[in-house]
Design goal:
The chain is of the alpha/beta class and 368 residues long. It is built from 15 helices and 6 strands. It folds into 2 domains: 124 residues, no CATH class; 167 residues, Nucleotidyltransferase, domain 5. Strands 1, 2, 3, 4, 5 and 6 form a 6-stranded mixed beta sheet that branches.
């Protein structure tokens, strides 16, 4: 079944049966935004991926609140662009429809803010975000042939103090010329060279993830700096996020390209890697070819004259704008500009709730 046919069938069922049923059960009719939330929750099915060990009750102690309802509430937080957990709880208190959509039957059943925070930490430790995202890819894109994967990163401003830089011991200066007979010189292996033979998980484990200070050129060519993290995103032609990684802000984009190529190639079948000049490296192109992809990048002159792209490559490279639109929508529409949590695991979960909500919303746009 084609992607648009599958989404049309699902949304047709939701509009014919679910919306009328909800309007009968609720005291006030659903608004357009609430219908959008219901549709997104139906696509995500986030409650199916809540780990069972989280919802299990162990005596003695108080019974935990239903983590499935809390997971649905965090999706609503991303869609409604609520910056903090207290804002989410106040919205649930004041809007009965929102409370019922998330699964809280009564006003008194709403858990405390501390319970929301504990559940968020449990979801971060249990990798709930990755489970939901992988299930979406498997459901909607597994049998699709994707033309282009657009790779880019975006700055994520955090509210933590940047980690102190580790001062490395200076290496002794190397002698010029060929080594003498019997002389052994240490071979320094670069990260890209290691990533060629590593698996995606091994390469990702080596990437720095601490909050620090990053600097990069914006679209107008001016340098800008921030404290926080960097979100690396692979999107397809229609803006669906396929893979996402959160690293330290100071990490160069090229250091994440090979793990992303391996990770995305395992999830979907695609033909072209589209990247900007930051990814122009021989090792990255080698891996792209090994996975039977065609790599198209802007050339990094490295203080030399840049050879322009061929006309057909330049035309195909324009498709890469979908990556910039996805980053923009994540920040403006799904809360990536309002990161109020601390620590890599929680920041990643906050961003991934935005990523999966963006995925569902982009699917709805296909039939909108």
């Amino acid at each position: 079944m084609k992607l648009t046919d599958k989404i049309s069938w699902l949304m047709g069922r939701v509009q014919r049966s679910l919306f009328p049923h909800l309007n009968q059960c609720l005291t006030t009719p659903l608004t357009k935004q609430e219908e959008r939330l219901v549709s997104i929750l139906e696509i995500l099915q986030v409650e199916r991926h809540v780990p069972k060990n989280v919802t299990r009750y162990q005596y003695p102690g108080r019974k935990p609140h239903d983590r499935q309802c809390l997971a649905r509430a965090f999706v609503a937080k991303a869609l409604y662009r609520l910056p903090t957990t207290s804002d989410l709880r106040r919205a649930l208190q004041s809007v009965a429809n929102l409370r019922r959509i998330c699964g809280f039957r009564e006003y008194g059943a709403l858990p405390s803010e501390a319970t929301f925070s504990r559940a968020f930490a449990e979801f971060a430790a249990g990798s709930l975000d990755c489970s939901v995202h992988d299930a979406l890819i498997n459901e909607y894109l597994k049998d699709q042939i994707i033309g282009h994967i657009n790779r880019d990163s975006t700055a994520i401003v955090g509210r933590e103090k940047p980690a102190k830089k580790v001062v490395k011991e200076p290496r002794p200066p190397r002698k010029r010329g060929r080594p003498a007979r019997g002389e052994h010189r240490e071979i320094i292996e670069k990260r890209l060279d290691r990533q060629v033979r590593q698996t995606a998980e091994e390469a990702i484990d080596e990437l720095p993830i601490a909050c620090d200070r990053g600097t990069k050129k914006n679209a107008k060519g001016y340098k800008e700096s921030w404290n926080g993290y960097k979100l690396h995103l692979d999107t397809n032609d229609i803006g669906l996020p396929i893979s996402a990684l959160v690293t330290s802000a100071s990490l160069h984009d090229s250091q994440v390209a090979i793990p992303l190529i391996k990770l995305t190639s395992r999830k979907v079948i695609y033909l072209y890697d589209l990247m900007d000049a930051a990814y122009d490296a021989a090792r990255i192109e080698q891996i792209s070819r090994e996975y039977n992809h065609v790599m198209i990048t802007e050339k990094n002159g490295r203080c030399k004259e840049v050879v322009p792209m061929a006309p057909h490559q330049a035309e195909r490279y324009k498709i890469r704008s979908s990556a910039e639109r996805a980053n923009s929508r994540l920040k403006e529409d799904f809360g990536a500009n309002n990161v109020m949590v601390k620590g890599h695991a929680k920041v990643s979960l906050h961003l991934m709730f935005g990523v999966i909500t963006l995925f569902a919303d982009q699917l709805l746009r296909l039939i909108g």
